[in-house]
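in:
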């Protein structure tokens, strides 16, 4: 049986150490990927969202980080960041369209993932393992999609 797959699909994975320079390295790599695939219109938003996701992973986990960017549909990409902390932070712990998130006006932290949630066309999370599971592999994926509105976001609108 033949499988059907979209033309011109691509995917890149970057493994990053638990290092304060990881967000900059992720941005530099992502810029090269997007420019190479003629997706210049996505560069600014993708760099902002990637920076926030990778910085969150560095700040709240103690292990390596994996960044994956892939062609998700004709006009968009999906950015996924995996880290070793299985706890999903606010505002990613509530589904899209579930209302506002309160961030203290005088708070030092807590705005990064809110920026992702507000700027992305679609976003979500997936956990693996956890403290009670005893699983050797643990962590979470935080992902977002940007482009000319993801097909899922268009249906939800």
């Amino acid at each position: 049986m033949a499988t059907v797959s979209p033309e011109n699909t691509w995917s890149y994975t970057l493994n990053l150490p638990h290092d304060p320079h990881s967000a900059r390295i992720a941005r530099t790599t992502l810029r090269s990927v997007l420019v190479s695939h003629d997706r210049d219109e996505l560069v600014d938003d993708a760099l902002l969202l990637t920076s926030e996701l990778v910085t969150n992973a560095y700040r709240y986990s103690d292990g390596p980080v994996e960044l994956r960017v892939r062609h998700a549909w004709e006009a968009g990409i999906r950015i996924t960041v995996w880290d070793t902390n299985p706890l999903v932070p606010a505002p990613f712990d509530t589904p899209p369209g579930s209302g506002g998130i309160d961030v203290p006006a005088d708070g030092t932290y807590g705005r990064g993932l809110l920026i992702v949630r507000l700027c992305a066309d679609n976003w979500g999370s997936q956990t693996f393992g956890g403290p009670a599971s005893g699983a050797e592999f643990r962590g979470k994926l935080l992902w977002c999609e940007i482009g000319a509105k993801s097909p899922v976001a268009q249906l939800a609108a």
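note: The first helix runs from residue 22 to 36.
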